[in-house]
Design a protein that fits this description.
Chain A has 571 residues and is of the alpha+beta class. Chain A has 20 helices and 20 strands. The longest helix of chain C is centred in the C-terminal third of the chain and has 21 residues. Classes of the chains: A alpha+beta (571), B alpha/beta (431), C alpha+beta (456).
């Protein structure tokens, strides 16, 4: 039901008339997110229509709204940039707090490498400013259009520069948090007036209840400000590009850089390569690029993609590809990194994918025919460092090489062509597995997902991508690894949607049965019920926290936890 | 009827993944975060509903029977300037038609009787007099007096100079048109004008009055065809967009080749037929008008079907040409500017196919002046930030909207034609 | 130095986690107050001090190191494992761990990590909670929990079989409870084991010293090198602290080292690992050297009587059971807090001014500045050695501590690990303390863990 008049007056009194909407048409734009049909039992594309959408401008306004929700039937659900279905209201009594008006970059402390931001600062906004001063932030692969505060405080995701910029949940240096009660608490050093450099303490760190691997997705108050860790960036501080949509090409490939896609001869070699590159502290950006994504990344439209797949070329060389980027601050560093990479390529019998050839439909057809009888088209490159060097530096195919390297720059550094591109093939993308731990575990998950998908590929219900769309990379110089299993499906085909649901649910069960970690989709009320008993009964603890911190359910619990129905601890 | 048309676009709506890229320029082009935003109504109103994606979702909601056309839907849908940048941004990653949905949604709202009152008067005038801004008087018709231009169709000329009746209603535009005529005459172009030229009907087009526009556009084509000219030169970018981009879809394309003034001036200066001897020491930036740029792409007829391969991979067979904005008129005005001695052209951040709207389109200055002025303010700031002393553009709507309000703060905003006229050292421009 | 402390009524050494859990459950029933320790004596920071009657649970005999995983660079240890023991266990596998500045021999690795003690290897610390991986612990309620990847699903064996190594610290799902336990000084739960992130053992080390007449001169250099993530172990000592560290209680040695040094010294280790170590060291030495030169500084292998090699060796290895700070005079006031590097000098000066008011000369104050979390902040430790046998001296430094902490708090020093009078930091953020209280009431509803600490 739309907001009643009294509630409308209250909210208008808090944020001002223009910033409260209860018109059905506006509300419906907050009832539709990324591929909602997989969430709904009936396959509908609509999620619950919220009671209202409110656009607050300050923590104080949010504080008043939370107090209002604590005393009324309404619940609040904050969103920043939106996108994922977890941004949706769980029922019609939820008031969406769209934080778009809170979009200030409050501070960039260049010296201490800290940025303090509000909720609607998109990654592209901050990163554009940062790169100019040789700094960068971790950006999840949802793309640079996402809210940095959301991924750091309330949500999750992995980013392709994780090898050098860690992970959003681990990069928090401070949080301003409006609790469900309306109280405002600032965690860490900022809360004690010391500046935004540490989120831990004093004493026990409450950061441990404000988020975990998964965030609270708006289920436990509202995060209104956060400080995030910035990292060095030795890439170009400015660049020029040419060309036109969708092919914007860097005029020059940055100096002291490497943009490459390394094709490993086997999964084992790929795993070893990931560990070795991590230990060498080589990569700045890294993205495991399965065969299908390699083809997708080299084509401009689905027809080209189809031709690329039909050519039969890609499975011959691109089953185990890591797309990588690194920079160096000095010639010495560059030389060392190049030498280390060459050693790793040799040790793993890997080769860089030559970027010299066009991926046009015509050339793919020709190449497919020419190489029809060749099982390992990269064999000559594997054997010959000279040939590798030729492919990377000769005039042959230089323009095409620059175009592909540019794509890697947009992908790995700017996060400008990431996940959205994955919607192009079939307009539907879902994901399964995706637990953080080791690079080996990441591959175990990807392998499970690939096998599970085969049945549905054979039935033609999801894209025949070879099964393996294990996407991710290593983190913190190889200390951690992450791969999720992407599924590309047809949202308008109920059978396809059902297949996705089966896969995601099957993935969750497999995670439990085969100890494959908590999946990326393993959050919220429903997942907690299934995962909790297998995971230290965390479900009980989040429910207890929900009960203690939100006794009147002022925050929409659905994507976090329902209040406790268990006996109180220690009783 | 309008709902049926929307229904044919359901698949396009469903391709929205709510990623909000429609609110931004294509991300690789972002060089200054201050100018990453792309959508005037979202920049002012902030609710997602106002975005290209929001409009897709509301259209889908309407088709699904969740909402009906009403004042609220009209309020939101008509805050859009129909600039088409969301369409370009989305197509950077998705084969989807955003602009088609937006236009069809607005047409449906109007058909249901909820078009903004602020648009009604102009459309009614168009219906009754053929002119959205009122039928011209003798005084208006005299904008070219004394130039010796041929009068078509009584006389014959290679080139028809066409102001889309803007010279009748906008004295400034009349002066600009007069300057263009002088330039063409100087270059020896065989040029004429219509004794009474018709309105392009743009006010009906972009306010969702499809029926009125279709009929009007068809009549205009008849008149233009009767002129016998081989080329029609549009003085304003908005009119080029309509004639080249939308007449073929809603009515038909005129028989003559349609050019924008900048294209002809580019050709004339390149060939040396028009010389620009006068030095103009000025640092200028060029604002790409939406309807001269991305919206002027002619439709690319395609007959085929969307097929599936590799399971559910969709593709178009035969290949479907996509209008992603890149075939608009971008280089000719820039080349002309580069030929003016002493002039320094500095580019803004949002240019060419991802140019930012001035806020003057879609009837927005009438229905949502705050949106129109907000956009203009952002554009003028951008020009200032890149160090420009003058904004040059090529559309009278842009000139007018950028100049409206306190935001221009003295930033000169000139039409390309005015600047070329000055560089050519011609006297005149007025009677 | 807490006058209201009471001695434990009993010291209990449970044999395993089950016994420990039984103890905690029993405490919930009979109201016993439990204080936990994993390190052997002495406990210089007095973290075990409790004003209320309590039983001391001593886990220092829990010594198992049951996983050393070279491929994933991780190990799993019990609370009683000391730095010496762990370093020795890791070395054959070509690994090591970041170590706090010269930990005492009985220092528990897990205790130090769970207390967020800074390590001397700042660019290996990505997150304030590092290098902890997963943990197993028992809540004050007696319930059992595993954090991080170990949290499940599946048994530890099953996880290892799948390729996991319980290395990720976050989770399970919405929880990050290891952070709640860190810094809690035993008030929230008792850790029974934890995995620790290991690093490759340098195969070649080329340590240097960078000397300067003031901290302000050194700071820009440290910023540049840390930002670039160049080098390995790094920290700053003033000459007093460097001499305290290197003297091992030998007063003559102390004086000769101190007098031979510039006012401040930065240790800058450069290392090569398994891959191309010589070339790595060579380019890094060149790049770091250029940073030093740009700031008018030089990389030296020794300064005065201090060699970089000796300092590195001393700093990254445990000392005796006596904390190095106390080796010279028996006692040492140690005021430590976090700030950013650009404020370290200002905070030091503030302390120095305060100390002077209490009769302590600037030259007698040791200063240790340790960049943490890849230099996004720094640990500042200000030390005043005193004769522990003298009641007057102890009283003097106690007054100094109280006053200095108050002034430093006002100036923005962040006492993230509040010991002693530093617990007044909680008053600076009452909302946070209230939240801690709410969480405490869930984790330890009957207040059996270190009851009364910080008013909880």
């Amino acid at each position: 039901m739309p907001l009643d008049d009294q509630a409308y007056d209250t909210l208008s009194g808090i944020v001002g008339d223009p910033w409260v909407e209860r018109a059905a048409c506006v509300l419906d734009t907050y009832a539709y997110y990324q591929n909602p049909e997989t969430m709904n039992e009936d396959g509908s594309q609509w999620l619950p229509r919220p009671a209202a959408v409110v656009l607050p401008e300050s923590p104080e306004e949010i504080q008043e709204i939370m107090r209002f929700c604590s005393k009324s039937k309404y619940m609040a659900k904050p969103i920043s940039t939106g996108f994922h279905t977890a941004a949706a209201a769980s029922n019609n009594d939820t008031i969406i707090l769209d934080l778009k008006r809170m979009d200030r970059i409050i501070d960039v402390d260049e010296k201490n490498q800290i940025a303090v931001i509000e909720p609607y600062v998109r990654a592209i906004d901050l990163q554009t400013q940062l790169l100019k001063i040789g700094l960068n932030c971790h950006i999840i692969s949802a793309g640079a259009n996402h809210s940095l505060l959301a991924s750091h405080t309330a949500a999750w995701g992995y980013g392709v520069t994780g090898s050098a910029t860690s992970h959003s949940g681990r990069n928090l240096l401070g949080v301003e948090w409006v609790l469900p009660s309306g109280d405002i608490v600032t965690l860490g050093s900022a809360g004690s007036g010391g500046g935004w450099f540490s989120c831990e303490g004093p004493g026990p760190s409450m950061r441990g209840v404000m988020r975990g691997f998964h965030g609270t997705f708006g289920g436990l108050g509202v995060f209104t400000k956060c400080a995030i860790k910035l990292y060095k960036y030795d890439g170009p501080r400015s660049w020029e590009f040419e060309g036109e949509s969708p092919n914007y090409v860097l005029k020059e490939i940055p100096k002291r850089s490497k943009f490459t896609a390394i094709a490993f001869p086997s999964r084992e070699a790929e795993k070893d390569g990931g560990y070795k590159m991590g230990e060498a502290e080589l990569n700045y950006g890294e993205f495991r690029t399965p065969m299908f994504f390699t083809a997708l990344g080299l084509t401009n439209n689905n027809l080209e993609l189809k031709e690329a797949l039909d050519s039969g070329l890609f499975p011959k060389f691109a089953n185990n590809v890591l797309s990588c980027a690194f920079f160096a601050a000095s010639d010495g560093e560059l030389a060392w990194k190049n030498k280390a990479l060459a050693e790793i390529l040799k040790e793993t019998n890997a080769a860089p994918v030559p970027f010299n050839l066009s991926a046009s439909v015509r050339s793919l057809k020709v190449a497919g025919k020419l190489l029809a009888g060749v099982n390992d088209p990269l064999a000559p490159l594997r054997k010959s460092p000279w040939l590798q060097k030729f492919a990377e530096s000769s005039g042959f195919g230089a323009a095409q090489r620059r175009a592909t390297q540019s794509r890697l720059f947009w992908l790995l550094i700017r996060n400008a062509i990431n996940i959205q591109s994955a919607f192009r093939p079939s307009q539907g993308m879902a994901t399964m597995m995706g637990a953080f731990d080791t690079w080996d575990l990441a591959h175990a998950q990807a392998e499970y997902a690939a096998k599970a998908k085969q049945k549905y590929i054979e039935q033609g219900l999801i894209i025949a991508d070879g099964g393996d769309l294990g996407a991710g990379g290593t983190f913190e110089n190889g200390h951690l690894g992450y791969l999720e299993g992407i599924i590309l499906y047809d949202p308008s085909n109920p059978a396809s949607v059902e297949a996705v649901r089966d896969l995601v649910e099957g993935g969750l069960r497999a995670s439990i049965d085969h100890a494959l970690g908590v999946p990326i989709a393993g959050f919220g009320v429903n997942a907690n019920k299934e995962l909790g008993p297998a995971c230290s009964h965390y479900d009980r603890w989040v429910s207890r926290l929900k009960t203690a911190l939100d006794p009147n359910t002022a925050s929409d619990p659905f994507f976090y936890a329902e209040p406790d129905s268990e006996p109180k601890p220690g009783s | 009827m309008t709902k049926q048309r929307l229904e044919t676009l359901r698949g396009e709506m469903q391709k929205c993944t709510r990623c909000s890229l429609c609110k931004m320029v294509p991300m690789p082009t972002v060089q200054d975060a201050k100018y990453a935003n792309a959508c005037p109504p979202v920049m002012t109103n902030h609710f997602h509903a106002y975005s290209g994606g929001g409009l897709q979702v509301m259209a889908l909601s309407l088709l699904d029977g969740r909402i009906e056309a009403d004042e609220d839907l009209a309020r939101v849908a008509f805050a859009c300037t129909t600039c088409g940048l969301c369409d370009v941004s989305c197509k950077f990653i998705m084969e989807a038609e955003r602009q088609d949905v937006i236009l069809a949604l607005r047409e449906h709202i109007v058909a249901e009787g909820y078009g903004p009152a602020a648009h009604e008067a102009a459309v009614e005038r168009l219906r009754t007099t053929g002119y959205a801004h009122g039928a011209p008087t003798d005084e208006h018709l005299g904008w070219a007096r004394g130039l010796g231009l041929k009068s078509l169709p009584g006389e014959r000329a290679d080139v028809l100079l066409y102001t889309g009746a803007s010279a009748y209603s906008d004295p400034k535009q009349a002066r600009t048109a007069r300057k263009l005529a002088e330039l063409l005459l100087e270059a020896g172009v065989d040029v004429g004008i219509l004794k009474t030229e018709p309105d392009t009907g743009i006010d009906a087009f972009w306010t969702g009055h499809r029926d009125a526009f279709e009929k009007h556009a068809s009549d205009v084509c008849d008149i233009l065809d009767e002129s016998g000219a081989k080329k029609i030169v549009a003085v304003s970018g908005s009119h080029l967009g309509l004639l080249r981009g939308y007449y073929p879809r809603y009515a038909r394309a005129p028989q003559a080749e349609v050019l924008h003034a900048s294209e002809l001036l580019d050709e004339l200066t390149r060939k040396g037929r028009l010389r620009l001897p006068r030095t103009i020491e000025r640092r200028v930036t060029y604002h790409d008008p939406c309807y001269l740029g991305r919206q002027s792409e002619p439709p690319q007829p395609w007959e085929g079907e969307e097929k599936l391969s590799h399971g559910v991979l969709t593709y178009f067979d035969p290949p479907k040409p996509i209008n992603n904005g890149v075939r608009g008129v971008y280089d000719p005005p820039r080349r002309v500017l580069e030929r003016i001695q002493g002039l320094e052209l500095v580019e803004m951040h949002r240019i060419r196919e991802y140019s930012f709207c001035c806020g003057g389109g879609g009837g927005v200055p009438d229905a949502h002046p705050d949106v129109a002025q907000g956009a203009a303010r952002s554009r003028v700031e951008e020009a200032r930030d890149v160090g420009a002393e003058t904004i040059v553009t090529a559309c009278h709507r842009c000139v007018n909207n950028l100049r409206t309000g306190p935001h221009d703060q003295g930033m000169p905003i000139v039409d390309l034609i005015d600047l070329v006229h000055e560089a050519a050292g011609l006297q005149g421009g007025s009677e | 130095m807490n006058p209201s402390r009471t001695n434990p009524t009993e010291v209990i050494q449970p044999a395993n986690a089950d016994e420990l859990r039984t103890l905690v459950i029993g405490a919930n029933q009979d109201g016993t107050n439990l204080v936990v320790t994993s390190s052997g004596d002495p406990h210089r920071k007095d973290g075990l001090a409790s004003a209320e009657p309590h039983k001391l649970i001593d886990l220092s005999s829990w010594k198992q190191i049951d996983l050393v995983d070279r491929r994933n660079r991780v190990c799993r240890i019990e609370p009683g494992v000391t730095y010496s023991e762990l370093l020795a266990a890791l070395e054959p596998h070509g690994m090591t761990i970041p170590v706090p500045l010269t930990p005492r021999a009985t220092k528990s690795v897990l205790a130090a990590i769970m207390d967020r003690e800074p390590s001397t290897w700042p660019n290996k610390q990505w997150d304030g909670s590092d290098p902890i991986g997963s943990t197993e612990f028992i809540f004050g309620s007696g319930e059992h929990f595993r954090t991080g990847a170990a949290g499940g699903p599946g048994s530890i064996d099953a996880q290892r079989k799948s390729g996991g190594a319980q290395k990720f610290s976050s989770g399970p799902s919405h929880t990050d409870f290891h952070r709640v336990l860190q810094g809690a000084q035993g008030t929230m739960g008792i850790v029974t084991w934890g995995t620790v992130r290991a690093e490759l053992l340098p195969s070649l080390e080329d340590p240097h010293l960078v000397g300067a007449s003031s901290m302000e001169t050194l700071v820009p250099y440290v910023y540049d090198v840390q930002r670039a993530m160049l080098g390995e172990h790094s920290f700053v000592l003033n000459r007093q602290a460097a001499a305290m560290l290197m003297a091992s209680g030998d007063e003559l040695r102390f004086l000769s080292v101190r007098d031979s040094l510039p006012a401040f010294v930065c240790l800058q280790n450069i290392a090569g690992f398994e891959r191309l170590p010589d070339e790595r060291v060579a380019y890094q030495r060149r790049d770091i050297g250029e940073h030093a030169t740009r700031h008018g500084l030089e990389l030296e292998q020794a300064l005065g009587e201090l060699s970089a090699q000796d300092l590195l060796a001393r700093a990254t290895r445990p000392c005796t059971t006596v904390d190095w700070r106390c080796e010279c005079e028996g006692g040492c006031l140690s005021v430590f807090f976090l700030t950013t590097l650009d404020r370290a000098a200002e905070m030091t000066q503030l302390f120095t001014d305060c100390a002077l008011e209490h009769g302590v000369l600037a030259q007698d104050i040791g200063v240790y500045v340790q960049p943490i979390v890849q230099n996004h902040g720094c640990h500042v430790e200000l030390m005043v050695p005193y004769d522990s046998s003298s009641g007057d001296a102890a009283q003097r430094v106690q007054h100094l501590e109280e006053q200095a902490v108050a002034r430093l708090l006002d100036a923005g020093a962040f006492f993230s690990r509040p010991y002693g009078t530093a617990d007044r930091v909680f008053a600076k953020n009452p909302a946070n303390l209230q939240l801690i209280g709410q969480v405490k009431s869930l984790f330890d509803p009957n207040r059996v863990l270190h009851r009364g600490k910080w008013g909880l």
